[in-house]
Write a structure and sequence with these properties.
The complex is a heterodimer of chains A (about 170) and B (about 350).
Chain A: H1 3-24, H2 28-48, H3 52-77, H4 89-111, H5 130-139, H6 142-164
Chain B: E1 2-3, E2 6-7, H1 8-43, H2 59-69, H3 80-95, E3 107-109, E4 112-114, H4 124-134, H5 136-145, H6 149-180, H7 185-195, H8 198-201, H9 203-216, H10 228-231, H11 241-265, H12 277-284, H13 286-312, H14 320-350
Antiparallel strand pairs in B: 1-2, 3-4
Classes of the chains: A mainly alpha (about 170), B mainly alpha (about 350).
Chain lengths: ~170, ~350
């Protein structure tokens, strides 16, 4: 068992455990913090795949920016008190069915992907390095890239418009 | 030495290096508190600490000892784990920046050359962005876990301030990236050794970076999170003993780290000005050059730290709306303009 495998299994256990903790913790602030741990674990997986850019951007954008805003909102809403469990039985059943459907779709979709055929090449590919990824993004995939940036721009404009109201 | 297909010698080498760097940061942070008080005293025509040891040189030890022996209070209504986690995170995020910084030219021991850098990753600058953006959590978690309104307001202030100034900081660094064309810290330093320091090409970028770094460290013109007259003490109101010490220490380590970063990204890193390192190495040996270059980096960083202190004891605190105004309406557009001009010039020169 090499260092890559040791790291892989450690990270996998960490990610699965913290992801479970996200949905099982009663306190929403704890959930957010566990989600941050999950993001760090996933970033670790990206590093193992030699996708360094993706790993660090995952931390900058998700762990560093979005989760800070989540934490911000939850702290200000003062959700300290553990909320009472849902009383309505039908809502619980509906949630169970909906979750089950999602699981079914995911499993069905994953069965037909190429994951089964192409095993991961840990630490060998170099498409994830900044220089290569940048070249790809700005030559082969320049149109989708620009469209995504326009999407972001419109989201920003929308946020400003909502914020300006009164 | 391979066990489990792991190069243990490599790991041991890195562990020793990390231990040394962490110790260095701690010592510098300790003496930064002493320096802060001496600088303040000089600016205000006082003596400053001068009782413990000659010139008060043992004052940080006395302060540290005092903090250790204080009673440790954990508020009853706080969430205990997060309350302890807060100062830990503040300390960790302050220290991990040091991983990507080249501290000097390589040492040579026996046949091995040992680079004075823990991880020479090719996303060095992005790593620094990541650490800066994660740096909010220590304060936010501690502030929330204290279960105190003043702490919470301070934590929210700290978070919004850091998130706002992160943008301009990032934009000013992008201009540096355009000039050097790489994100690897060691590469940025060696390019500066060849073509002159980045501050010559990016004076505006440096100014913006400097202001934003001051805001990220919560130093005085920007120390809204710990404004005594509005918030009692701010986010560390409920903290005592060494947990408080960790928060205070983390601020000084952050300050030292931003000094080191400014030196590395703008002032040539460990480059000794007007000296060719390779020729010098032939003259006096590799290890002496490593020591000299390391000292050079420390001098540059300490000067930045001194500048921070000087500003702290000169300029009063901003109001919060002034702070946001400066961040969003002045620094971000300036940094954007700086980035665009740099991009245009780089493009024009390459053609």
């Amino acid at each position: 068992m090499g260092i890559t495998q040791i790291l892989f299994w450690t990270l996998t256990v960490l990610v699965l455990f913290s992801a479970l903790m996200v949905i099982t913790s009663k306190n929403p602030v704890h959930s957010v913090l566990w989600l941050i741990v999950t993001f760090f674990g996933i970033s670790g997986h990206y590093v193992l795949l030699n996708a360094q850019f993706l790993a660090i951007v995952n931390i900058i954008v998700y762990a560093g920016a979005i989760m800070v805003l989540f934490l911000f909102v939850i702290m200000l809403m003062n959700l300290n008190k553990p909320s009472s469990p849902l009383k309505n039985k039908w809502i619980q059943i509906a949630g169970f069915v909906a979750g089950g459907c999602l699981l079914l779709v995911l499993v069905a979709a994953l069965r037909n992907t190429e994951i089964a055929k192409n095993t991961v090449e840990a630490g060998t590919g170099d498409i994830g390095l900044v220089a290569n990824l940048g070249r790809e993004l700005f030559s082969n995939f320049v149109v989708p890239f620009e469209i995504a940036s326009i999407l972001f721009l419109s989201a920003m404009v929308g946020a400003v418009v909502i914020g300006k109201k009164e | 030495m391979y066990i489990l297909a792991i190069d243990w010698l490599f790991i041991i080498e890195k562990l020793i290096l990390i231990a040394l760097i962490v110790t260095l940061c701690m010592i510098v942070a300790m003496y930064a508190t002493y320096g802060e008080r001496k600088v303040a005293a000089y600016i205000q025509d006082r003596y400053g600490p001068n009782r413990a040891g000659p010139l008060g040189i043992l004052q940080p030890l006395a302060d540290g000892g005092k903090l250790f022996f204080k009673e440790e209070v954990v508020p009853l209504a706080s969430s205990k784990i997060l309350f302890v986690l807060g100062p830990m995170l503040a300390m960790v995020t302050a220290l991990i920046t040091s991983a990507v910084i080249p501290w000097g030219t390589a040492l040579s021991i026996g046949k091995n050359t040992i680079p004075l850098q823990v991880a020479d990753i090719n996303i060095g600058v992005l790593y620094i962005f990541a650490v800066v953006s994660v740096g909010v959590y220590g304060i936010m978690i501690g502030a929330w876990a204290s279960n105190n309104k003043f702490s919470l307001i301070s934590g929210v202030r700290a978070a919004s301030q850091m998130v706002s100034y992160e943008l301009a900081l990032g934009l000013s660094l992008i201009a540096v990236l355009m000039v050097s064309g790489t994100m690897q810290m060691s590469e940025i330093v060696s390019l500066q050794q060849q073509h002159g320091w980045n501050v010559l090409y990016q004076p505006f970028g440096f100014l913006i970076f400097f202001i934003c770094a001051m805001a990220e460290c919560n130093r005085t013109p920007f120390d809204l999170p710990e404004a005594e007259n509005e918030l009692n003490m701010g986010y560390h109101q409920e903290y005592s003993s060494m947990k408080l010490g960790f928060y205070l220490f983390a601020e000084y380590i952050n300050m030292f780290m931003s000094g080191i970063l400014m030196a590395t990204l703008f002032w040539g890193g460990y480059d000794i000005p007007f000296v060719d390192e390779t020729k010098l190495a032939a003259g006096i040996g590799q290890n002496w050059v490593a020591f000299l270059s390391f000292s050079m980096l420390m001098i540059k960083a300490c000067f930045s730290v001194f500048l921070f202190m000087w500003i702290r004891w000169t300029i009063p605190r901003f109001r919060f709306d002034q702070l946001m105004h400066l961040g969003w309406k002045r620094l971000v557009p300036l940094a954007l303009l700086n980035m665009l001009i740099t991009a245009a010039v780089v493009l024009w020169l390459n053609k």
